Structure formats: C-alpha cells, structure tokens
Amino acid sequence: MMDETARVREIYDRIRTAAQQWEPTTLSYFVGQPFKALITSMLSAQTREEHTLAAANALFALADNPFDMLNLTNEQILTAIKRVSYPLVKVNYVRDICEKLAARGGDVPQTIDELTAMKGVGWKVAVLTLAIAYGRTEDITVDVHVLRIAIRMGLIPRETKQPPRANELLKLALPRDLWAEWNGLMVQFGRAICLPTYPKCKICPVRDLCPKIGVENRGS
User: Fold this and answer.
1) Which domains does the chain have, with CATH numbers?
2) How many CB atoms are closer than 10 A to CB 22?
3) Which of 205, 195, 212, 216 is nearest to 152 (CA)?
4) Which active-site residues does the annotation give?
C-alpha cells in the first residue's frame, strides 16, 4: 500500500514527465526577468494562457522596462493587451505598476506586502512574481488549475476556496522540494488533461493515483 508521500511524489514525477509533451506556461518565458514577470503575472489574471502570452509579447515589443513603458500612451498599451480579460482596467494597472517601480529606480519588490501595494497585484500575482522573477518559493501559487486539481486529487478539502488557505494546506501535503514546480506543472496538466469540465481521465497519467473527488463527467 503506497503511503501519501509516495503517492504525491509519484503524481509529481508522472506529470513532470508527461509535461514535456504539453505547451509550456506563459510565465516560463520570463524566468529571471522581474519586470516582465510582474507585468505578465498581472495580465494573466482571468485570462487564457495564449492570450496572455500574445499580450505580453506585444507590450514588451513596445517597451521592456517601467521607464519606457510610462512613455507609451494608454491607447498603445490598450492595443497591445487587448486580448486579455478587462484590458481597460489593466491599462491603469500597467501604468500604476510602472509609476511605482520608476519611483524606486525600476527595482521590482521582493516582498508580498510591497507587491500587493500596486494596483492589480493581489496575493496570487505577488507569489507568482516572486517565484518566476526571483526563484522565491516559500509559497505555492494557487490559481484555478492548482485549486481544482488539488481538490480532485484529495490533497486539500473540497470546501477550500481561498488561494492563501489552499497554499497553506498544500504546503502541508507536498514535500518541500516539489513546491517550486507545482504551479507550472498543474497549469500544464490542467490545460491538457485535467480540464474544468470533461477531464480526460481515461488518458490521464495519474488516473490510478487520483480519487477524482467531485469529478462527475469524465472525458476520453
């Protein structure tokens, strides 16, 4: 009988192997680039991966630092990011972030409190930025994919709703060395296999390890 730690590690190992065949996450293109990681993380909120990447690339083609971005007009920013959700609101977020960064010499903060003082930067965006920009993995970024999959796999209670709470519970469930890659792998897994509706359980690499909690409709 496999114990829970062994089950979790086997889930991780199988998904990590399978992920080599799936589309990379948008943020993986901006590892070690604090400004781009922050802006892209903010743009990604409630937005599909492919739309986030298209918007980020279009915006960074115009300006790749806060000082130059402040010289863009709102219309230029809007045109670049038009494919994200709530683009008009996010134009203001881009400008506020750049103003605050410019005021501190362009440096992107390395604390959640400082990051969340910027418009459009909530807990999830801050944690994701720290991980992608600086390799800071004291926390696990919890987005819709991570939350949904954690519940289905029985890693956290079904009633868990808030990302910070899910993060704390996941840190108890996952060995420390798995935290860094967990979000990225679950995003890939959630887009390719463990879909919100009609997950592809029959071809899932961890189908024998997952209790499929709350899954009612299983795709092929």
Assistant:
1) 4-23+139-203 (1.10.1670.10), 33-134 (1.10.340.30)
2) 15
3) 212
4) 124
**Counts for the chain of helices (H) and strands (E), in that order:** 11, 0
Those residues whose C-beta lies under 8 Å from the C-beta of residue 71, and which sit 6 or more positions away, are 63
- Would you tell me how many other CB atoms lie within 10 Å of the CB of residue 193? 21
Packing angle between helix 179-192 and helix 123-134, nearest 10 degrees? 110
Query: Which residue matches tokens 């922050």?
Result: 38
CA dist 33 and 132 (Å) reads 8
- pLDDT given for residue 220 in this prediction: 60
Tell me the one-letter amino acid at 87. Answer: P
What is the C-alpha separation between 51 and 84, in angstroms, rounded? 6
**CB hemisphere CA count around 20 (13 angstroms):** 5
Q: Which stretches of the chain drop beneath a pLDDT of 50?
A: none
pLDDT tens-digit map of 2-60: 799 999 999 999 999 999 999 999 999 999 999 999 999 999 999 999 999 999 999 99
Q: How far is the C-alpha of 190 from the C-alpha of 210, rounded, in Å?
A: 14
Spatial neighbors of 203 by CB under 8 A, at least 6 apart, are: 193, 220
Q: What is the DSSP string of 64-111?
A: SSHHHHHTS-HHHHHHHTTTSSSHHHHHHHHHHHHHHHHHTTTPPP-S
User: Rounded to whole angstroms, how far apart are CA atoms 212 and 33?
Assistant: 37
